[in-house]
Amino acid sequence: MNTFPPSNLLENLPKQFFASLVKKVVQYIKAGHDVINLGQGNPDQPTPKHIVEKLKEAAEKPLNHKYSPFQGYRYLKKAAAEFYQREYGVSVDPDKEIAILFGGKAGLVELPLCLLNPGDTILVPDPGYPDYWSGVALAQAVMVTMPLREKNHFLPDYDELSQEILTNAKLMFLNYPNNPTGAAATEEFFADTVKLAKEHNLCVVHDFAYGAVGFDGQKPLSFLQTNGAKEIGIEIYTLSKTYNMAGWRVGFAVGNESVVSAIELLQDHLYVSLFGAVQEAAAEALTGPQDCVREQNRLYERRRNILIDGLRSIGWDVTAPKGSFFAWLKVPNGFTSEEFANLLLEQAHIMVAPGIGFGSFGEGYVRVGLLADEERLKEAVRRISSLEIFKK
Ligand SMILES: Cc1ncc(COP(=O)(O)O)c(C=O)c1O
Predict the structure, then answer these.
(1) Residue 392 pLDDT
(2) In this predicted structure, which of 21-35, 46-60, 177-191, 202-216 has the lowest mean pLDDT?
(3) Are 155 and 148 in contact (CB under 8 A)?
(4) For residues 364 and 151, is the Cβ–Cβ distance under 8 A?
(5) Which residue from 133, 173, 179, 358 has its CB within 8 A of the most atoms of ligand 1, so it is best to mutate?
(6) Hey, whose CA ends up nearest to atom 2 of ligand 1?
């Protein structure tokens, strides 16, 4: 059997940091331990029934067994436009300002390929969602990181970017509610972002994956609600988290017309659009009843409160997330994020994600997913409280 070496492009892709952690957890489970997995970002609730029913019905239609139109069905783009109008009061043209995606990740990886030439600069948050790095590597672009610090509420400080970097940068990624920090954006921050982007001819990509998860009565802001945002940017929305459709692979890019057409051009070469039945069910999700989304938000908020109140009660000084389904917890003194994640796995059989896996400014934190039910979260707190370092 011949072995064919991968291309340089593949060799230069970033290493998957979390793969080794997942392997270790699997070993623990195989050894018979009851592991509470709070380390990953896979929604634990099912897709709402009315959406699944629509998929079943649509799967029966012969039309959906054919190739879909290359850029997707217009009714889905129209549904996405209605969703933006209803949820955020933002008007978008379904024909020019929306591109259908195979999930948010596809769009985020495609965008650097659409807009950057090798050697061009892109600004990326640190800590941040590791898949951003994949598109940067594929485009052979130069990544400049923007530190997200707790003292700045995990918003980047644009004053830290040199004139040279701002002159060279063509693209910027942002993500609020934020994975991994659970931080939320403010109107003022988004307005500053638009101003900066206009001054430096930057394209802003706002990843709004957790748009449906905001706590304490604060609905997360869409970047497109900011005056002038559409002129300089695009928002990536996904149905994965809002409607628990992570396995379905459906999302959309919305905003700047030139960016939408660049995405559609690349996708015309890479794929034909999504299965028609998935598109029908996605349109149903966006325009059908939304109580499921509100109910789910309340569920994550209850879980957040159980985890945060529980950890505070055992003397761990933790900050509550404002949105997303992650809590970003400062590790106790004397541990690196990896050491502390290992300790939790080995001694409490709890899996969390070490912050360093999200970038160097993630060091000193672990990310805990609110993706287990209330009893399991209480059990996690109990197990943590019995660790030597938390014994008073
Ligand atoms: C910040 C962020 N962006 C994008 C995604 C991608 O979601 P999907 O590709 O399922 O739409 C995720 C998924 O975990 C995420 O956490």
Answers:
(1) 64
(2) 21-35
(3) yes
(4) no
(5) 179
(6) 209
